[in-house]
## 1
Amino acid sequence: MARRTRAALTAALICTLLAGCGDGGEAGTPAPAATGEPWYDEITAAEAAGEAGGAGTPCPLPVTFPVPKSWKPKPVEAPDDETATEVFEALARRGGTTATCEVDGRRAGGGFLRVWIVDAPAAEPRAALEAFVAGTEDTVSDQQFREVKAGGVDAVEATWVETSKLLEEDDRSWALALRAGDRTLVLAIGEGLLAERTDVLPAYRLAVSGLRPNA
């Protein structure tokens, strides 16, 4: 094989492995960029069958994103009674964020996609995401971060393994942080007892790829 041909093939191979050459997408966008553990970019987005976040949806947000069939958005609202409030505080607050919207995918065999609003309005996405990942009483390991695009918006994405102290089970999660208007948002999804990555990641990929800020 001629030296020039070998060089061309080598360059093409490197380009493919890095997934960032030519017209494969905007810089920072998985195209896919990392197959297998821990990002699983080869798992593609589900087909859209609705939206969450818009003014006419159950939980208005600074952004709108598509959701798959049978995934139902609903607001996360603080309860009135004291006992339920304690449960709410434990489940709906994490690392300086408050859960605002939950997209329930249990009927489709998936889990939950949750949108969290960062309490500090001026928080930068990377710092907010680091605090979110760390903001649990469970054990966190294998944290990884990368810059991506959510729709056309610059964002930071994280993945990590969370080990439940109660169940002693390892579950991988993924989350994305971005600025929308004057707030920072975190979109998060994870594996669980009844949901594996192939159940939850298609909905997450759909939301991330189709996300757009509201005017």
## 2
Amino acid sequence: MHRRRTATTARTATTARTATTTTTTTTTWATPAVAAAVGLLFAVPGLAGCGGSGLTPGTAAVLDGRRIPVDAVEARVAALRHAPGGVSADARWETEGPARRAVTELVLDAVVARAVADRGPAVADTEVAAARAEEERRLGGAGRLARELAVQGVPAEAIDDRLGRELGIRRLAATAGADAGTPAGDAAVRRILAATATALHLRVNPRYGTWDPDRAALAPAVRSRPAG
């Protein structure tokens, strides 16, 4: 999805994380190249179709009338299957976790993009390039960065989007007078993203879970228990 970026520093850093239940893993804004980030891993039990979400078939999510198609999610998961350090074909969660991560990444890209666009100018491509060069230097090469992000559900072709999103998140925290790496900054960013997601009328296909505005993350979909 198209994204405007907001100017900020080229140096990326890990921001605060939110602990979740055993069915939903930690939400992290930044790459693990800076510190011990674990990425957006959401192993949510799958639900068939679009259920009562009102979404058209083949739609993973809708924001402000713009669709994230299931095809885009499947393409991202397919890319991860072939990425070093990415999805393992024999992983126990292979049919659930990667798709949830893909939807979360795509949704966050769109939500952060709108929040950033509402608050300032775009992040320059040169800033993203500088951030990428710094991450590669930290980790010891482009291949290592690609492997680290593949573990988080980010294929090689989405690395610049991920880094741009991190820069945007740091900018969002700054607009609130906080540092994204602090609890106060993290809370401020989550409030901004919650308001933005609401303004975008975000809806997610229940097969991938439901959006939790307080955590700015996908939460497990609730499945009804059979009677008796």
## 3
Amino acid sequence: MPRTLAPALMLAAILATTAHSLEAVAGKVYRGTDGQSVEVVTLEPRTASEVLIRVRGTDSEEDGIALRATLKKHSRGADYVTRHRGGDYVILLQRDGRYEAVLPGVQAFPVKFNQDATDKASTAEVLTAHQQQLESGRIAAFQKKAWPHLEKKYTARAGEAVAALNKACGTSSTFTFEWKSFSDEVMAELDVWAACAPLVSRAQAHCASVKTVTSLVCRFGPTLGLERGKDTLTFTTTPKGAAEGPAVLDRNLSR
């Protein structure tokens, strides 16, 4: 495993753990003129200037996502900065007392503080939404940058491998990477196809056990494992997937 990958994965695990213990100090709701709402939940400790922001009522595909952001003040006002596509992204900005919000795919829109909506809002509900989206991978997908060259390369190699599998076993399987599970650190440091390839090679060695399988899926996780659905095999790989994955897969596919 590359020397720099282990600390990165450890940091990711720590961040995921701390998400469970987020505590709200206060919450505010801002309203747009076309029915949009922006919920801002200030987190403990207040001195860290961290918040959760959820924007709703837009046409963005990311509508409703509850993102962790940092309040950064400057001479012109303040920016609420989160992470999107691998870089800083200002989801809410304040200039001379005026606020403006934006989600990817929609035009920025002005919002004003709304006391009635604030009184009715639930900070706990925003915290819960954030946690659920962390667990589902939605936030990871929003934050990670695009890796089109690598994704194209790995997809091509997977296509060649699954074609060989289908020819050898008489199957008609497809292969899919669950890209949202592969963080930027993993994409930068790990040969993702090498870590996923055992799923195809060991399936080809166990043709009888994959006769009804039409979908092979590889995702990244903390421990190696295989889940079998009605017609799907989902392999959870790790940085040790290339070396240790075959044995794990052989044990599961031979049952």
